[in-house]
Amino acid sequence: MNRWTIGVVTALLFVVASRSATATETENSDFRMVPPPHSVTIDGKTDDWDLSAGLFACGDVEAAASTYAVWLHAMWDADNLYVLARWVDPTPMNNPGSVKGDYGFKGDCLQFRVVTAADVTADAVGRMSGKDPDAATMRTTHATCWRDRDGADLIDLAYGRTFKEGGIKNAKEQGARQAFAATADGKGYVQEIAIPWKLLTKEGQG
């Protein structure tokens, strides 16, 4: 963490619910990441998580808070960014697509964006590079994380603010991990993710 500054810009949480004209949608401007209390195992369980800094998201709090919503959490250590989504969903892990060629966002899917940059001031970066400081050290990563109709899962990383800097179609082949587990009541599921910093930072910055 002392080498770069990290920002989770936004999370696009696909929680679909009927909304009336008076529906109240959650608004979140802060997302705090905490260090893990101990080592993290990516197994779809939450017993190794610090859940104190969760962010709640719902499209209609009055009507859907207990049926279509999500608690989102993040932790970090020297090697990985960890993301945990605790979904409230009466049809858990119900994505009709296939990771062999479909778009994950057409069904149950977690999408979020992460921005990393070297831990120096923008002016200093500009002087060193002679270029836009953002271009010198900053990386924007769009993550699409989902499980398909056959139980196969995918972590797809696309780079660049406008998706024009390449990406990694299957980040699990380069060390990313993901696990899913249905809740005991069958009305939701847990999605747990670990992504190595080396996949979220520009070369030489991670």
What would your notes on this structure say?
- With 206 residues, the chain is mainly β.
- 8% of the residues lie in helices and 35% in strands.
- The chain has three helices and ten strands; from the N terminus they run ββαβββααβββββ.
- The strands form two sheets. A five-stranded antiparallel beta sheet has the order 1-5-6-7-8.
- A hairpin with a 5-residue loop joins strand 6 and strand 7.
- 32% of the residues are buried.
- The N terminus is likely disordered.
Highlighted features:
206 residues; five-stranded antiparallel β-sheet; 10 strands; globular; disordered N terminus
Short structural description:
The protein has helices at 61-64, 122-129, 133-137; strands spanning 4-13, 55-57, 69-76, 80-88, 110-118, 139-147, 153-159, 167-168, 177-182, 188-196. The chain is mainly β.
Mean pLDDT: 86
Overall geometry: globular
- How large is the radius of gyration? 18 Å
Report strand order across the widest sheet. 1-5-6-7-8
Say how many strands there are. Answer: 10
Profile the largest sheet: 5 strands, antiparallel
Q: What would you call the quaternary organization?
A: single chain
| Percent of residues in β-strands | 25-35%
Tally of alpha and pi helices = 3
Question: Strand-and-helix sequence, N→C?
Answer: EEHEEEHHEEEEE
- Poorly predicted runs: 1-5, 9-20
Distance between the termini: 9 Å
| Structural class category | mainly beta
Helix percent band: under 10%
